Structures are given as structure tokens and as C-alpha cells.
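From the methods appendix. Each design record in this collection lists the discretized structure first, followed by the designed amino acid sequence. Records were kept in a plain field format so they could be parsed without special tools. The example shown here is representative of the layout used throughout.

RECORD:
C-ALPHA CELLS (218 positions):
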């Protein structure tokens, strides 16, 4: 099995892909990284902009992975009583025999996320609706639909086909005006590509000691 469960430095678990020689999250802390990049610098930053947001807030995630980001958003939505529609793309889902052994199984919502049907919109709580798709980013055809994009694919050096200008253009077009894209990646070419398709690029301090991360604004 090329996927192995690992424990990161903040005690939360992630996965290591032996074929790609890549982890799904920072080894400094899976949970801490996700909260910082996607919740604080993504969702909560959007809400701090004082603009009128349509409800529910619509989030697109590129890379469902372990389901950690979805779980954190679900928890946030219920705690803050803010309705969120969470769409996620994952052409290569983590096998059940792997996610079923992760510590996150202690939260019953984690299993619900993984067992939710694909290609359906499912209301999992009063404030959290999930839509999972195995379609690749190349098939994204929506326009002006999302408020936030969590760009959480493997690094450009591992999956360069995902980080193309064409895919970033699709992301830009799928965002509503004022929407944002947030990611752990701060590669120079990636930043130039974001700017070339129209994003205003912001370079922020990275998570858990990493030098930089990037947020793009439409």
C-alpha cells in the first residue's frame, strides 16, 4: 500500500504517499497547517472583508485528501451558525482501509464525510452541505459560483499538471467577484501564473514556521 498513516508534530495525523514521496500535510502539524491556511487565511479572512456575502458561503476544495479540511469547515460552520456549501474534488480518494484507521475516526463526522455519496449534494448538518466529485480540476466549468477556493493539491513538483495556467484560469473564473484562493504553496512561477490570470497575489507568512504562503484575490 503506497499510503501510510503518519503522526505530525502537533499530534494530528496525516498520510505519506510512498509513490510520490510526499505527505498530505506539513509534518510540523496537519491540523495546525489546515486551520491557519484554510480557515484563518481563507474562510475567516473572507468574512473580515465587510462585503455582502451570499448565503450559504460557497467553498471549493481542490484535493479532498484525508477529509481534514472538510471536517474543520463543518465544525466551524456549526460553531458559528454560518451555512456553508462545501464542494470538493478528489480524482483519487483515500481507500477506506486507510482513513478508517486514522485518529480522526474518533469524530463521527469524519466517517460521514468519507461515506457520503459522490456526485450528490448532501446536507450533513443544519449549516453544512457537502458535494464530493471525482472529476479533475480540468473539468471545472462553473462561473462566478465560489467565495473561497482551498487549493490543496500536491506540490507543483509532484503534480505539475494541476498547477497549470489553464487550471488557475478556471479557478479565477469560478470565483465570485471579491472571492479568494488560498494555498500553502509560494513557488515563484505559481505566483506569476496567478497574477497572469487576474489574481491580486498576496504573500503571507507561512504556517508553522514555513516562510511563505499565498492568497489570491479576485
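DESIGN:
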Amino acid at each position: 500500500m503506497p499510503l501510510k498513516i503518519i503522526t505530525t508534530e502537533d499530534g494530528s495525523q496525516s498520510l505519506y504517499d510512498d509513490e510520490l514521496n510526499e505527505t498530505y500535510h506539513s509534518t510540523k502539524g496537519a491540523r495546525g497547517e489546515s486551520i491557519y491556511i484554510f480557515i484563518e487565511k481563507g474562510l475567516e479572512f473572507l468574512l473580515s472583508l465587510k462585503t455582502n456575502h451570499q448565503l450559504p458561503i460557497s467553498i471549493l476544495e481542490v484535493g479532498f485528501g484525508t477529509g481534514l479540511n472538510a471536517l474543520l469547515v463543518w465544525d466551524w460552520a456549526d460553531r458559528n451558525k454560518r451555512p456553508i456549501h462545501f464542494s470538493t474534488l478528489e480524482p483519487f480518494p483515500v481507500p477506506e482501509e486507510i482513513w478508517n484507521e486514522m485518529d480522526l475516526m474518533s469524530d463521527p463526522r469524519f466517517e460521514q464525510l468519507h461515506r457520503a455519496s459522490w456526485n450528490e449534494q448532501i446536507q450533513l448538518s443544519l449549516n453544512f452541505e457537502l458535494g464530493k466529485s471525482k472529476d479533475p480540476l480540468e473539468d471545472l466549468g462553473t462561473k462566478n459560483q465560489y467565495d473561497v477556493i482551498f487549493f490543496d493539491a500536491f506540490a507543483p513538483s509532484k503534480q505539475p499538471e494541476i498547477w497549470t495556467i489553464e487550471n488557475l484560469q478556471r479557478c479565477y473564473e469560478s470565483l465570485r467577484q471579491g472571492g479568494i484562493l488560498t494555498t500553502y504553496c509560494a513557488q515563484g512561477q505559481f505566483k506569476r501564473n496567478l497574477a497572469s490570470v487576474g489574481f491580486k497575489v498576496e504573500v503571507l507568512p507561512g504556517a508553522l514556521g514555513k516562510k511563505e504562503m499565498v492568497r489570491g484575490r479576485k
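APPENDIX NOTE: Residues 30-48 form the longest helix (19 residues).
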